[in-house]
Design goal:
alpha/beta, Rossmann fold, 2 domains, 5-stranded parallel beta sheet, 16 helices, 11 strands, globular
Length: 388
Amino acid sequence: MQFIFNLAARAGSLLIKRSPEMQQPNFLAEKIKRGEVKKILLIQLQQLGDNLVFTPTVKAIVEHFSHLHIDMLVNTVGYQVYKNIPQIKTFYVDSTWYWSKGDRKLLPLLKLLLQIRQERYDLAILDVTCVALKYPVISFLTGATFRMGLDVNHRGFLNNIVPPFHRDKNFVEQNLELLPFLGIEHASTALWLPCTESDKTTARALADKLKQDPSDKLIVIHQGSNWSSKQWFAERWIELCRKLMDIDGARIAFMGVEREREQVERIVLELHDTKRVFSLIGKTTIHELKEFIEQSDLFITVDTGPMHIGNCTQTPMIVLMSAIDKEDRWIQASERVAVIRKEVECKYCLSEHCPLGTKECMSLISVAEVAHMAEAMLAQDRVLLRKK
């Protein structure tokens, strides 16, 4: 099947030629200035992390073009990320388009596309993680006059405005490369997950409930991932928690989704301390989780969607990063963010499950170094660390 897709993409790229004029960075910007682009459709149908690395670009677009009509085509995950952005007029939500293999259903999406075509959008914009052939096809079927997105391995041949693709840039930076084509020269790289006052109130109440004293150290852990190749090991989480519990006033809260409940509850049960270690599986929305992490003193996670939620905050965090993908592609180390990653010969495998069955890149991450890093970050001045 992949061979057929590649062949179709190659043939399409030979048959469909783009206008050189439309590839000029100022082409769309001039169209917008002259009022020839009035309706924009943003498209993001992928996972939580893919949506969050698009948020700096979305923020720049909605703030810069508040006078234009801007809508979004998203799945249920994307809707949760963007729903608090008032500048988005309409959300087209495909509740059947999930990341999991075998779960995508085309009929509901086609019905949405028929509805979208009636709106006659001037411009459709694809996030740079949407490079598989199906996404430019979806953009084409919206009927938008101009369709901006990448063209990787000829799969974006239906996009008629194609920004340059830089393999050395991370996804946030690559998304921001779309903006000069719209006449936007400067934008922040900070991830953006706007929350309501209700989200903040709920998170503060939950944090206050777990802390017995205001001086207690609240440590939030997210240990799960859809990909087993990114997961650490239950016995190491247990050992790490035991070391963290030696820190005076430490309170540990495990977060996660329902499918992670069994493993988390097994870890919590093994620690035999329900007054200092808690399972909050399924207790928060993504916005409440963001605000809960903001209330905490330290966030420890693997490479997963909540890693990006943590990166929307100013809370110090430690990421246990597998070597399956390029360094710095999804998150970058800083004084606030510590990334623990091991170099192995089998790196860049991009495999959901370790092809060798050893998970060497995760196995090389020791409990001792994670605990040492956690103690060091907790010992620093919290206010100063957040400002850096």
